[in-house]
Amino acid sequence: MMQHGKTGILNELLLAMAVVVSLSTAWAAAEEKAIDIGSHRQVFIDGRFLAKARGVDLLVHQPRKTGEMTIRPEHEWEVGGVGPYSSVMKVGDTYHMWYHVMDTVQWHTGEKNGSICYARSTDGIHWEKPELGLIEYKGNRKNNIIIGHGAAGAEIGQDGVMVFLDPNAPADERFRMLGKFDVPVEAGQAIHIFSSGDGIHWKK
Question: Which of 23, 81, 156, 177 has the most beta carbons within 10 angstroms of its beta carbon?
Fold first, then answer.
């Protein structure tokens, strides 16, 4: 009986070792298996998608100034220039841009001199600034202002915004905008989230 007990224990140990070896082999095979990226483009910022590399280095391309401007400040509400806080997103076949501008050359002169404007493009290079007519700016509604100077009930200074698509939101709120606004105007500045169904008409 004692001999049989030792044999049983030995068999169990051998079985456990076999299971461990099998799992280790499976894990190794899984790690070596190629990553299926389909037809999606990949940015090579590390070695994740490279099984082997010899004689090559991953380098970031240096920026090159061309003198070209995607969006030019050409209207009175843009006289202070286009700010660095902008969002660009492709939805369907259309590129959407929400960019920040000031109507004063000295950006720090006021907390209500900025606005978020809208532009669209079919190629991401040539942009159209549609006359939306959402708010009257100095007696004229022919502008592309969507936030600020009273548009969407808000005022904005030299702070830009971030726009993203919310997959869990209703269709009429799928665009979300996060920014620092005066809402309502007399309440003072705070961080707010606005929503829109088309990226043009926004509500808090």
Answer: 156
